[in-house]
Structures are given as C-alpha cells and as structure tokens.
Amino acid sequence: MGLKKFDGKSGPLNVNRYRIFCSEMADKKDDFSVKKISPKLGGERGIRNPKGPTSSHDLVEQMEFLYVENQVFAFDKTKGDVLSVTLKDGRRENGTVIGKQNFKVAADIPFRVPPDARIAPQWYSMGNMELMMLVWFGTQADEVYPRAWFADASDVSASCVRNTRPKLYLAPRLCYVRVTIVSGHDLICNDAERTPSVYVRATLGDVELYTEVSLGSNPSWNQDLIFVASEPLEETVYITLFDKVNGQPHDDECIGVLNKKLSEMNAVKVPGSAPALFYDIEPPVKLEPASDSRRFASRMKMKLATDQAYHVFDECIQYSSDYRAFAKGLWPDLLGKLEIGILGATGLQPMKEWRDGRRSTDAYVVAKYGNKWSRTRTVVGSFSPKWNEQYSWDVYDKCTTVTFGIFDNNQLAVVSSNTNLDGLIGKVRIPLTSLEWDRVYTCSCPILVLREDGLKKTGELQLVVRCLCVANAYVRATSPFRWMLPKAHYKSPLSMVQTEDLRWQAIRLNCLNLARAEPPLRNEVVLNMLRPTNKSFSMRITNANLERLRKVGRMFNWCLWMKETIRSTTDFQPKIIACVASLVVVFGWWYWILCLAVWPVIPVYLAVISLREIFRLGRLECNRLVLGVETHRPPPLVPVDLKLWGLDSPDLDELAEEFDTFPSSVVDVNVLRMRYDRLRREMGENVMLLLGDVASQCERFCALVSLLDSPLAWICFSLVCYVIVVFVYMFWDHRGLLIK
C-alpha cells in the first residue's frame, strides 16, 4: 500500500502527517525506555549488602515528618522552622482563639523512629486551658503514618481525608462452586394432566444460572452450573425448579425449591467430582395440612461441591500474579519474597481543570500481586508526587507479573452523587521472570497508554524492586519444572468460554469485597486493574504472537545453535564439549561405558573444565555478596518489548482497526477492502505456512520413527547423523566457499 495510510473513518490519511507522526515516534523511543535511577535508599540492607539485616523501609528514601497527636497531623520537616499550635473555640463562627503554643523545629521537638518506645504525651498551657498532645519527628516507618492527616491535604474536608490515606487490602480467596444437576424424580406439576417441561435455576448471590428444558416427570440434564464464591464460604445456593407453561417466561410455575449452604457441600480438594446424591425437594407452598406427616415425594439427583482444587482466575492469564488453588494443602512451597518500594512519579499529566483555569492531579498508586492489594497515600496537587512507601508479597511462582495502576483521586470533596470516578492515568506491569534473585533494581518506568493516535506517555513511575529468595536449594532448583496450574486444571479442564465467564464473576466478587473495606477500594479501580485485554482483532498483536512462536522455535533448534555458537568460534574447547554432549544425548549410557573402557581422557577433561567454571562463578558471587563489588551488570529491566509488540513505530491504520467497534463502524469501502487484502496477505500466508511447516515436520518425524523399528537400524541411523552433523556444522567452513 506504500505510504497511503487510512484512519478508518475519514478516508486516506495525509502522507505528510504520517511522516511527522513517524518522526515523532522515533524521537520518543528513548522516552519510552526504562531509565536507571540512583535514589538514596534507607535501611541496612541494600545494594551494598543484600544479605544483611533488613528494616521495613530499606527500599525507599527516608522522609522525615513532623507528627502532632492526638488527632494525627503530619508536616514536611523542610517546609518551616516553627510549629504553631492554636486552640480555638469551635462553638463560635469565627473560632475565637483560646491559646497558642509555638515550637522551634530544630530545638524543641524530639526525634523517634520505631522500634523506639512511644513518647509520652505532655500538657501544654493554652491561655486559661491546658492541652495534652504529643509532638515528634518521625518517618514513614512510624505507626501513625497510615492514619495521619498530611499537610498537602489540608484543603480536603475532614469527612474525605480517609480517602487519602494508605491502605493494605487482602481480598478473600475465591473458590468454584459446582452444582451438577443430574436428574429429577417424581416431579409433580400443578396440572396433573400435562407432561411437565422442567428447567432448574440455581442462584448464588446475584448470579443466576439455568439448565436446559427437559420433558417428563423424571427429566435428565447432566449439566454443570459453576459459580464463584469467596471465603469463608457461608453463602447459600438457592435451587428452584420451574415448569415451563405456554412458552412464556412470565407463565413459568415453580414446582419445588431447595436451599443448600456452601459449608454443607462436599469440599473437593483433589481432582475429581463429588458423589451424586438424592435431595428432597420442598414444595413452593404447603400442600398438606399441618397435621399430615406425609413428605413431599419429589427428589433431585445432584452433585453439590466446592471445587477447592482449582485456581480461580481474576486476571488475564498472560498477566496473572497467582496460580495457587483455593485449598492451602495444594499450595507449592514458598519460593521467595517480592519487595517493592514506590518512590514517586514524574511528569504526570493534569487530570482536573478547575473553574479558575487551574489544572491539577491528585495521584496515588495501587499495586496488586496475588490477592494482596496495596494503595499509597494520595499526594494532593502535584505532578511529581513522592510516596516512598514499601510493600512486600510472598512469591510461590516466578512466572508471574506484578501490576501497578496510577490513579487520580476524585473523592476529596463531599458530593451529593457518586458519579466522580477515580481516573486511570496509566498502568505498569513488571514480569518477575525479568528479575534476578537477591538483586535491587532501581528504575523509572514509563507510564504508557495506547490510543488510536499512537502510543502516549503520561509520566514515569519510580520504583525499587527486589526478589529475595527464601527457599532451600531443592525448592529453588525444582520450581521451574512444576506445573503452572493445579493438577485439576489438567485432569478436568474448563473450557475457555467457561473460564472467561467465571473470571467476570470473580471480578464482580472482588469489587464487592474490596468496596466493603474502610476506606473502600473503589469499583472502577478494581475493574481497571483487572480489566481484560482487548479481544478484537489486532494485526499488531497477531504479528507479535507469531514472532513469539518463532522465538520459541529458534530456542529449540539445535542445528542453529550449533551453527551460531560452536562453528563460528575459533576456540577448540567448545567444539569438544559439544561433541561429547551430543554423544551423551545420542548414545546415552553406552557413551559412558565407551569412555571408561577406551577413552578415559575426555571425562577427566570435562571435570577439570567444570570445576574451573564453578570456582570462577563462586569467586564472582563471593565478590558480590561479601565485598559488594558488582562483577557483571544485571540484564536491563524491560517490562514491555516495544519492538516485539509493534509499538515503536505503529501503523495508524492498524491502531484504528484495533480500536474499531464490532461490527465495524467504517463506511469507506476502500478501507475495508484494504484491510481484508492485508489480512489475506499477511495473516493468511503466515498462518498457512506455519501450520504447513508444523504438519510436515510432524509427518516426517512419524515416518522416521516407523522406519526405526529395529535397534540396529536406530544405532546406525544415530551414528550416521552424528558424523554428518559434526562434520558439517563444526569443521566445514561454508564462508570460504561463499567468498570464492
């Protein structure tokens, strides 16, 4: 298509505008990268001594506050030299001054840092009265920090100041509730002359699920109805039987009910299903006289269980932060600790505009990992806020992701309606696989937002991250080989549609649970943190996923590895190591018998090389841990590969297609034809060729296995392949022939 780009709505995009856009994106590539920062971290354990004793705030910069109690007020120590405390009469409009007390910040106020004991309050003379209060210098490690009223929030009303305070939230763990409707027996409808058409409705909370309609007095369904419940599993499932009359929903008649508490259901903690039991169905109304002892004859055969062997997803699986089952007995061993210091942010965009033309942002950060949420305090009216708060999480699997959301607080004023929602400034995700154990990362991560007009930067979030390994050597060595999900997901898997529907139930349940906290974590915040990725077709994402598959394929391509690593080097040592390693793979234990009998030099040579490498790595690790000398730089922290995901120079038409609605809102036929041709050319050819290559390689492998039925044929074939590979990829120089 050349330089002819389309915006999807108004026809061809101007070529000059597209060139300007590309040049702007090229200039901003450096701004989109993660920058290394050098903060002055507090505490006793840091970059110089990562194994030393730790304090609760060793990954943040120490901030000193002036605290005044009993109602806790916090002031920045650097803002003034004198603290003035004034006592006024609140019963009068103008607040008549009763007394006043001044403190010299440098001389009259003591300093206290936990675990020092609390300073006793004192009486101070205020005119004709005395006031008991406590004044001291402290840091963010002080116990009163989470409930202090900070000076930057002085304009916030007293009833709304709670919305500015930091808070830790522990969301209840989630569990699947499986209601399997097997069959009904001796069901009676109100009209005895008509065959009942029965369906079942199961209700848990505000979620209702229905079975299909089955005919007869003994209907059969064998249908699963799955809900999501939160601990402590004290809710009740309401099961109602309806007789479908005249095909109209409002004419359906209730013919039986059953209520069952979750605590009374079978707790399934291993992969499998609960036993099918018969349950008596209660009539919707009392049909017998009170003196009649006969029971209602209708029964239902059902499997009622809480599936505690599953993990309930509340995040997208590619950004998941937890894979543990509900049952604690199925949790893997603790692997480590994730410690994060949220220092501050820079360059935030204004989110509010006041009537006087003033623009401001009241920012706070929400971090989520597992079922533990943390929220920093709100810094009022600053585009470069400083938080310096530290949080920690337990890590059970390193193939997880921690998510940060930066929000603008709109709950600082009393309003009659609840329409003021906290605005999302942006999100930052860090995969734990990009972090090395026991290493401190100090970085300034860009806050990137993808829009229809390209990738935009709304600020930078300054973080200090450390993954501390606390597991023993066995757990650490075997952790990469564990199943990612609990075994129930593999033995009795749920479909993708079921998993997605249940995820929305989990998100709704998390919103309800976190909204009950004090102060509440608002629904829009939880939804933005757990919001699923865009499911509409995206050429950019599809190309990125294909490239990811190619990368995985290249990792397992042994011939390419031999060509790039072994044959290209002039050192003879790696060639010998590769030959010996490939012999071990091809011949297995036969090789070791051959070495011990004929060629005993090679094992000794390999042992010497291995010991030398062990001593070299041991010396480097000793220098890092004991002397604090970094012998090699850690790999850079890259939360998002902009080049892989096509964000370094995005195609505007592809972004317009990605943000387009379904069905499409484009009215230009030329745009639709261009997108269809591009889909056929790029996706059709790539997917077709990729599937064809995979199918061909699988067929060749099957044909090869069928030919090697006898052991002698297998040995001869392995020997010939080994000789050819060693000769071609190690000792035959293609480059000389190509030059000639």
TrEMBL record:
Gene: A04p025300.1_BraROA
Signal peptide (UniProt feature, chain positions): none
Cellular localisation: Membrane
Annotated protein name in UniProt: C2 domain-containing protein
Record PROSITE patterns: C2
Entry's family note: Belongs to the MCTP family.
UniProt keyword annotations, A-Z: Calcium, Membrane, Repeat, Transmembrane, Transmembrane helix
Record's bilayer topology term: Multi-pass membrane protein
Organism listed in the record: Brassica rapa subsp. trilocularis
TM helices/strands, residue ranges: 589-611, 712-732
